[in-house]
Amino acid sequence: MTAASTVIDLVTGGWRAQAVYTAVKLRLPDHIEAGHTTDMDLAAASGAKEDGIHRLMRLLVAMKVFTGNEFGYRNTDVSRALLDRPGSQRDMCLLYGEEFYTAWGHAAEAVSTVSSGFEIAYGKPVYAYFTEDRAAAERFQGAMRAGNLFFEAVPGVFPFAGKRVVDLGGGSGQLLGAILAAEPSARGVLLDLPNVVAAARLADFGDRVELIGGDMFASVPPGGDVYLLCRVLAGHPDDSVVALFSAIRRNLAGSARLLLLDRLVVDEGSTVLPALWDLHLLMTTGGRHRSLAHLRTLLDRAGLEIECAADLPVETTALIVRTRE
Fold first, then answer.
1. What CATH class is the domain 151-323?
2. How many CB atoms lie within 10 A of CB 64?
3. Residue 93: its pLDDT value, please?
4. What is the DSSP letter of 86?
């Protein structure tokens, strides 16, 4: 491939992403699954023009999102992952094709000023936006669940049996649920903002779970054997993170530990995914992923140290943290 061809592939990447988003927005994977497989059928089912459907599907077949032709399309493993059903990546596709795509439209200004592209576009911080709009909030939480591809591996990196697990900023409870399902003797506490906790999906665990609506930067529940911070630090400044670490340290009695789960950035030999997600954080929250050295410095300021580390899927790292000796 020539340099010019590579440039073309790079600069048309957004078109490809928007083609997939459009298919999801029009529910084309769901319509095909329901038996509407021709251009004519898909147009009728989606309310779109047949010519538009034909041209969109021609591209998506070339991209191997679907197979077939105008006389009969079929879903692939890729398009089935976009069906409107639990565990799919539909909400992620919609979020990234709408609000986050708009935020990336302000990338030059965000990079130049090191400020949130989302806030430039919408006039308010990302979390405020998703708190105020219920439908958008549900889509946001669905997208977060879809991106949690490493949760099932977390019980293998720490002995959770018999522990009281406090998940700070734990969202809908997907990670805590994975831990409790793997360790029947564990108990859990989920803390997040009240509107988030209200939508938590942990009913199956009954009295093994305590739900607390609140702000982890204001108060940390006492009595935990392990405190979880999973992908919640990136949007917050260093001083706030140190204050949170300090509050957690005051609750780390005996063998209690803090478990940090996050992507780490490196400046030399970086792969694409961590660097891409770091820049995405700038576009959305104005935040950043931190390096291991950066996190060590913040932990040290709070009187904590890394005991050991473990690799998780999708280039995520688990850091097991203890009180500094």
1. alpha beta
2. 11
3. 95
4. T
Provide the pLDDT for residue 149: 78
DSSP classification of residue 235: T
Q: What is the pLDDT of residue 279?
A: 95
Q: Which helix (H) or strand (E) holds 319?
A: strand 316-323
Whole-number pLDDT of residue 147: 66
Query: How many CA within 13 A on the CB side of residue 187?
Result: 11
- Estimate to the nearest angstrom the gap between the alpha carbon of 79 and the chain centroid: 20
Nearest 5°: phi and psi at 212? -130, 120
Rounded CA separation 13/189 (Å): 41
Can you give the pLDDT at residue 156?
95
Distance of alpha carbon 85 from alpha carbon 80, whole angstroms? 10
d(Cα 305, Cα 319) in Å, to the nearest integer?
A: 10
Q: How many CB atoms lie within 10 A of CB 311?
A: 11
DSSP H helix total and E strand total for the chain: 17, 9
Domains 3-80 and 151-323 share a fold: no
Question: What CATH class does 3-80 carry?
Answer: mainly alpha
pLDDT computed for residue 73 by the predictor: 98
CA distances from 15 to 9, 10, 194, 208 (A): 10, 10, 38, 47
Residues of the chain with pLDDT under 70: 146-147
Helical packing angle, 238-249 and 292-301, nearest 10°: 60
| Cα(61)–Cα(303) distance, integer angstroms | 55
Please name which of 187, 232, 191 lies closest in space to residue 213, comparing C-alpha atoms.
Answer: 191
CA distance 103 to 98: 9
**In the chain, where the domains are located:** 3-80, 90-146, 151-323
CB within 8 A of 273, min separation 6: which ones?
263, 314, 315
How many CA atoms, within 13 angstroms, populate the side-chain half-sphere of residue 123?
0
